[in-house]
Every structure is written in structure tokens, then in C-alpha cells.
Amino acid sequence: MNEQEKKKLSKFLSLILRHQPELINLTLDENGWAYVEDLKLKSSHNKMYFTLEELDEVVETNNKKRFIFNEDKTKIRANQGHSIDIDLGLKPQKPPEFLYHGTALHNIDSILEKGIERRNRQHVHLSPDKETATKMGMRHGKPIILTIRTGKMFEDGVLFYLSENGVWLTDYVNVQYISK
Predict the structure, then answer these.
(1) CA 180 to CA 85: how far, in whole Å?
(2) Which GO terms describe its molecular function (predicted)?
(3) E strands in the chain
(4) 13, 32 in Cβ contact below 8 A?
(5) How confident is the model at residue 162 (pLDDT cuts 50, 70, 90)?
(6) How many other CB atoms are found less than 10 A from the CB of residue 98?
(7) 101 forms bridges with which residues in the sheet?
(8) Which of 166, 19, 11, 162 is nearest to 85 (CA)?
(9) pLDDT tens sequence across 82-129
């Protein structure tokens, strides 16, 4: 599988497992899991063909570790980033003192006025390092990296979760915890 094919399959999986499973009439359970065989079958009806080996390659090599299999590889799900109501079963955790949020320059005025909102996602995504946050911000234009005082947020009662792929999640980041 070449890089272009992997990217195409990864984007398809992101769409189906995070946002619109109904596009291929796929059923996700309450924790976001889909049966691999069901995914393959329903994808092929929609002219998207892949083997279990190709699916495994995308899961294993995705640089953002967006997807995960269950132990016996009969089910697959996205690690985070859902716009549909999914319970990932994550337990609240104490975050590091600081985390980072990458955004585009054109979003900064709104963020500094309203805070960081989850918008159409289930959570706000925060990165453990500036490099990852920069990559996230670059997706939408010139990146701006914000430092989030997550230790103080946690002290103040805000809940945090750590996804399987190392992305920190919370519901909202108030302006008082954000610095440029």
C-alpha cells in the first residue's frame, strides 16, 4: 500500500469512525467500536476496498495513532476526535502542569475572547508538547501555539482525560488559563 492509498484509507476511517458512520450504514457501539468485518463489507458496497492487512498497516503506521483495534482485532475505533456521541470509557486523570493547543492565527481573537470551545467535537484537544501542537495548528493556516495552565484548571475542578494516543481532552478551556 503506497502513502497516497494509506492517506485515503485513513481519511475514510476518520470520517466513518469519528463523524458519519451512517454514510455506509455502519453501526458503532456506545464506545465507538465497529466490527472490522462489518466495516470492510459496508465499505466495499461503497466502492472502498481494503484488506485486513491494509487496515492493520494504517492503524499501525498512522502518525497520529488515530485508530485502535481491540485485542483480537475483530473491532476498530477512533481514539478521539468524534463529533458523534461516543463514550470512550476514559477515566479522569491529572494532567501535567502545562499543555499546548495549536490553532491558526485567524482563530486567536475568538479564542482570547471566548476561550477554547469544543465546537462540533466531543472535547477540546490539547497536546503534551509544542511540536505536536504546531502540527495541529498548521492544518488550518499559520500556527499559533497557546500554553494552557492545565495544572491550575485541574486544581479548580476541571476534568481531563488522556486518550489512547496521548491526546489530552477536556470540555472547555476558559480564557483565564490561556497564554500566548
Answers:
(1) 31
(2) NAD+ poly-ADP-ribosyltransferase activity; tRNA 2'-phosphotransferase activity
(3) 34-35, 67-69, 75-78, 99-104, 116-117, 124-126, 143-148, 161-162, 168-170, 172-173, 178-179
(4) no
(5) very high
(6) 17
(7) 146
(8) 19
(9) 999 999 999 999 999 999 999 999 999 999 999 999 988 899 999 999
Residue 78 burial by CB count (10 A; 0-12/13-18/19+): exposed, middle or buried? buried
22-41 pLDDT tens trace: 999 999 999 999 999 999 99
Is 36:52 a contact under the CB 8 Å cutoff?
A: yes
Domain membership of residue 92 (yes or no) is no
- pLDDT tens track for 11-20: 999 999 999 9
Residue 161 belongs to what domain range? 99-179
Q: State the residue for C-alpha cell 502513502.
A: 3
CA–centroid distance for 9 within its chain = 16
Give the burial class of 35: count Cβ atoms within 10 A of its Cβ; 0-12 exposed, 13-18 middle, 19 or more buried. Answer: middle
* In the predicted structure, residue 63 carries a pLDDT above the cut 90: no
Q: Three-class SS of residue 141?
A: coil
CATH number of the domain at 39, please. Answer: 1.10.10.970
CB 46, CB 23: distance < 8 Å: yes
Chain Cα centroid distance, residue 34 = 17
Same domain, 8 and 65: yes
Read off the pTM.
Answer: 0.83
